[in-house]
Specification:
- This protein has 276 residues and is mostly beta strands.
- The chain folds into two domains: 133 residues, no CATH class; 126 residues, Immunoglobulin-like, CATH 2.60.40.
- 6% of the residues lie in helices and 39% in strands.
- The protein contains one helix and 18 strands.
- The strands form four sheets. Strands 1, 4, 5, 8 and 9 form a five-stranded mixed sheet that branches. Strands 10, 11, 14, 17 and 18 form a five-stranded mixed sheet that branches. The protein has a four-stranded antiparallel sheet with strand order 3-2-6-7, with helices on one face.
- It is globular and about 50 Å long.
- The two termini are 29 Å apart.
Length: 276
C-alpha cells in the first residue's frame, strides 16, 4: 500500500510540473523533507465565505506535495494545515509554498523561516504576501487591569489574539483591544478585562492569562468565557462578540476574521489550542 501511495504522489508531482497553472488533485500521503528544523503551519484567513468551494485542494512546499483533498491537509477558510501540534518542516531559509484550488494554483509565495523556531504563516489575501508570526508569542503576567496578585485560588487559561478584521473590503485601519469576561450577560455590560495591548491588522497580542472559575468542582475545570473587541475609544464593535468554553491550563489562540457590515461574511472567530 505504501508503494501505491508513493506512485500517486509521483503522478501528482509530474502533473504539477506539466503546467504552472493546472495539476491533478491528489491525496494526502506521508512526506519527508531533507533539511534543518524549520517548522511552520499554514493558516488561511481570506475574507471569503467558509464553504467547501473556497477551500484549498492541496499544498506544495518547495515543490513537494504535502497535503490535499481527502486527507488531513485540506486547507479550509479559517483553517490550519497541518492541524494541532504538528508542523511542516523544510530546510531553514527561503521556503516556497503553493496553494491550489479547483486544480489551479492560486497562491505562490516564498517566506524566510529560521532554524529551530516554529512559525505560523497566515494567508489573508491571495494578492498579498502572508503574515508570518512566531508560533507562541511571549507570555505576560498581566491581563489588562488584573495582575498575578489578583489570581488567588483561581486557575488560568492563556490567550493570544490575532487581528484579520476587514471593513469596506479593506483591512480594518484601527487597532482592536481584545477583552474577556467571566460574568457578562451581553457584550455591553459586565466586567471586562483586557487581553494584551491593542493590535492592528495582521498583528498578534502577547500570550496573556485569563481566570477560569470552575463550574463543576470534581473535574479538570472549565467555564464559558465571553470575548469581544473594542475600538480605540473603548466602544464595543458590533458583531465582534463571541463565547467559548475555556479549560484550565490550556493555551488558546483566537483569530478574528470577516468583514464589518457585510451581509454574509460577518466577523467571526477561529479558535486554536496548543492542547489539540
Amino acid at each position: 500500500m505504501k508503494s501505491i501511495k508513493h506512485i500517486l504522489c509521483a503522478l501528482g508531482i509530474a502533473a504539477a510540473a506539466a503546467s504552472c497553472q493546472k495539476h491533478e488533485i491528489v491525496y494526502y500521503i506521508d512526506h519527508d523533507f531533507v533539511g534543518d528544523n524549520a517548522q511552520f503551519q499554514i493558516y488561511y484567513f481570506e475574507p471569503v465565505a467558509t464553504n467547501v468551494s473556497n477551500a484549498m485542494d492541496s499544498i506544495y512546499i518547495n515543490g513537494k506535495f504535502v497535503a490535499g483533498v481527502g486527507g488531513y491537509g485540506q486547507l479550509a477558510v479559517k483553517g490550519v494545515a497541518p492541524y494541532g501540534n504538528t508542523f511542516y518542516t523544510a530546510p531553514a531559509g527561503d521556503v516556497s509554498f503553493q496553494l491550489y484550488r479547483g486544480g489551479n494554483i492560486v497562491y505562490d509565495k516564498t517566506v524566510n523561516i529560521k532554524t529551530d523556531d516554529e512559525y505560523e504563516i497566515y494567508v489573508y489575501s491571495l494578492s498579498e504576501d502572508p503574515v508570518v508570526l512566531p508560533h507562541e508569542g511571549e507570555f505576560t503576567t498581566s491581563s489588562g487591569n488584573q495582575t498575578a496578585a489578583n489570581y488567588d485560588t483561581d486557575s488560568l487559561a492563556t490567550y493570544r489574539f490575532i487581528n484579520f478584521l476587514y471593513k469596506d473590503g479593506a483591512p480594518y485601519t484601527g487597532k482592536l483591544q481584545y477583552q474577556y469576561s467571566n460574568d457578562a450577560t451581553n457584550y455591553t455590560n459586565g466586567t471586562w478585562h483586557n487581553l494584551g495591548e491593542p493590535v492592528g491588522f495582521g498583528e498578534a497580542t502577547k500570550r496573556c492569562p485569563a481566570i477560569v472559575h470552575k463550574v463543576i468542582y470534581n473535574n479538570a475545570g472549565y467555564q464559558t468565557l465571553r470575548f469581544r473587541c473594542v475600538d480605540e475609544d473603548g466602544n464595543f464593535i458590533a458583531t465582534t462578540g463571541d463565547y467559548w468554553t475555556s479549560y484550565i491550563g490550556r493555551a488558546y489562540t483566537h483569530v478574528i476574521h470577516g468583514i464589518l457590515g457585510h451581509a454574509t461574511i460577518k466577523p467571526s472567530y477561529a479558535q486554536f489550542s496548543n492542547n489539540s
